[in-house]
Predict the 3D structure of the following.
Amino acid sequence: MSKLATRLLAGLWFVGALSAQNLKEFEKRVTEFTLPNGLHFIVLERHEAPVVSFHSYVNAGSVDDPGGQTGVAHMFEHMAFKGTDSIGTKNWPEERKALEGIEKAYDQLEAERNLGFRSDQAKVKDLEAKLKAAIEKANSYVDPNVYPRIIEENGGVGLNAGTGMDSTVYFYNLPANRMELWFLLESGRFLKPVFREFYKERDVVREERRMRVESSPQGKLMEALLATAFIAHPYRNMPGGWASDIEKFRAPDAERFYKTYYTTANLTIGIAGDANPAQVKLLAAKYFGRLPAGPAPPRVRTEEPPQEGERRVGVESPSQPLLILGYKRPNQNHKDDAVFDVVSSILSSGRTGLLYKELVRDKKLALAAMAAATFPQGKYPNLFLLFLVPNPGHTVEENEKAAYEILERLKKEKVDQATMDRVKTKLRASLVRQLDSNSGLAQELTSYYVNYGDWRKLFTGLDEINAVTADDVQRVAREYFVQKTRSVAYTVQPKSEAKGEGK
């Protein structure tokens, strides 16, 4: 191990976990158990500070969105912060009636709209007014932001959630003496979530898409790349969903998604910090034991067909030119997964990566150049990605040609041993950075458990990285970095602006 790696690892209590022998010492701090209803817990003891991090991992994301409801996984994530029948309401019996009234009004409105050209527009306007009134009535019973307020008032920090392609996660930290509060709140929102303020929150989700995709050159280009690279698999859809789907969401849509995918067999809990495993087991049984047992939900049926030729898409944008290259690659469980990690680090590892040294530093073709081994996520076959930002005065075409030259060199010339050693050291250091906090540990332990069947893969995966050879790098470059399976997305100046014409 290099001196750099030694310095990075020094002082961390789990320094020895990088060896098989001391992994057993790490294991002594980990307790795993599964409740009778199928919900799995992973508990890591770290008693250095009286703080505990909690991470709930739902093995479902936007790939599981039903047809015509892209973004509904993300929509339910927002609902999970709205409270229960006892948290967030001023009068639950009346609020429940009002929420039912909203859906009845919405049903009537949709029925009239669905008549198409035969619909009575005066009646549509009247039904729209009734729906608006029903929503306002239901919202009058809401005690807003109670769920996050309770957490903050009890010293909680880092409250957040995220919906990805493959998963949805919920996480925050609490003082150790408030641990039971987490069990009460977290089990409650998965047991009996209330879909209050749904249509108000739908507007929030729509605005998020507007900001992250429609008003973002990078977001628009990434969306175009995915829709081009994947013609069948739901990786083609951004996690936030398409605008037309979002605007038509109904509360029952999100409820159906929740009932299908938020089952105990599909949920894993990670807890790291000043926690006693015996106490955790008691609290888990008391609170999460209330959740009914449920089967594992259905998985994605659609498989992406083989790509038989390069695909290209240009997106008009007055912004700084951007270029993305995506090559089809197998999923995260493939034997070459570790090789892709090494290749990515060879190409893009700060100032020592080939992309930076050649395109940014030496040739000054790009302002930024980076690679991603797995995109958008890894449960299903995905993309190896290159992202390039041309320097002013240089073009997308110049950057694309230069990138191909670097990839061709990986095919023809073996990477030297010094480079192999350096990138492996950086990958080990990256792991250390992920594990330098309770929250990072809780997150990684749950993620690796769900995706690989064993959290130990978090550490044994380093052995796979170390086993990667220069021959492996060359073989993978030759096999996967080919024109036939490549998708290219780039920005182009709008024609009127490119010609200097007025608006």
